[in-house]
Amino acid sequence: MTRKIHRRFFVMAAVSFTASTVFASCTAPQNNGTASSPTATTAANVTTSTKEKIKVGVTPVPAGEILKFVKDNLATDAGLDIEIVTFNDYVQNNSALRDGQIDANYFQHVPFMQDYSKQKNLQMYAFTPQIHLNPVGLFSKKHKSIAEIPTKALVTIPDDVSNAHRSLKVMEEAGLIKLKSNVKQASPKDIIENPKNLQIKEIPGAQAIPSLPDVDLAGITGNWVVQSGMRTDKDALALESARDPLYAVTLVTLQGKENEPKVQKLYKLLRDERVKQFIQQKYQGAVLPIP
């Protein structure tokens, strides 16, 4: 079993991120099939030239879908030309920001950003209030309830500090383990009671869904769950009970760029009431807009 898991993890680690860009196009207005007048053409050119282009990194779901809604429905009136760059890897998304390949990204919560900033000595800025919350849940393809989880079960959790902590807290609330008290960022070493002798393995978040058939239980954040077609609110055996905005996803840019007009415009659009309504209607509680 262990060799099977290790082979699967090795193959999945070789998966590279994919990036795709979505471009907006503008056409000059025409009058009943005839050529545009000089005045109309000039007006169209002025409109195009005044749109500010902003390049934003996202993970595909739900952040990519939310940003596409903004691009398709709100950006033009705000004078923004949004280019969406999709990453399947958290590290690559922040690396692209560091290297100037994108102006901002929209995929991470503040604790994740702070941990990454500390590790990479990178100064980033997170906008608050945040945009949406991807609740962490415990999922299984082998078992239908927490009570069915066997002794020495193999459990995977995210390998980043903040989401590992969230997964362990859900496990504690479900009665599977007990953690040291007053630990701000718990890790497996902070487990003081493990009555089922669970075998806990930390893996990259992107590997959680592909490896789910091979493990007994997995702590997975809502973005990966929604992307897989599962429902966080229906398929989770246990789910984060506190809707703590600390772990809500927000727009992030490099420190010093947070006051750039195009970045400010984008943040205001992401906080628009129409975006909140879109999140509520599309995800039905599996993704939660932040008030």
Helix proportion of residues, in percent?
A: 25-40%
CATH superfamily heading of the largest domain: Periplasmic binding protein-like II
Shape: globular
**How would you classify the helix and strand content by structural class?**
alpha/beta
Distance between the termini: 45 Å
Alpha carbon gyration radius? 22 Å
Query: What is the residue-mean pLDDT, rounded to a whole number?
Result: 86
Q: Please write the string of helix (H) and strand (E) elements.
A: HEHEHHEHEHEEEEHEEEHEHHEEHHE
Could you characterize the architecture of this molecule?
It is a single chain. This protein is α/β, with parallel strands linked by helices. Helices cover 38% and strands 21% of the residues. The strands form three sheets. Strands 1, 2, 3, 4, 5, 6, 14 and 15 form an eight-stranded mixed β-sheet that branches. The protein has a five-stranded mixed β-sheet with strand order 11-8-12-7-13. A two-stranded antiparallel sheet has the order 9-10. Helix 3 crosses helix 9. The relative contact order is 0.18.
Overview features:
alpha/beta, 38% helix, D-Maltodextrin-Binding Protein, domain 2, 8-stranded mixed sheet, 12 helices, 291 residues, 5-stranded mixed sheet
Q: Quick gist of this model?
A:
It is built from twelve helices and 15 strands.
Describe how the helices and strands are arranged.
Blueprint: H1 2-13, E1 21-22, H2 38-50, E2 52-58, H3 60-73, H4 75-78, E3 80-86, H5 90-98, E4 104-109, H6 110-120, E5 124-126, E6 132-133, E7 136-139, E8 154-158, H7 161-173, E9 178-179, E10 191-193, E11 199-203, H8 208-211, E12 217-221, H9 222-228, H10 232-235, E13 238-239, E14 248-254, H11 261-270, H12 273-283, E15 288-289
Parallel strand pairs: 2-3, 2-4, 8-11, 8-12
Antiparallel strand pairs: 1-3, 4-14, 5-14, 6-14, 6-15, 7-12, 7-13, 9-10
Helix pairs in contact: 3-9
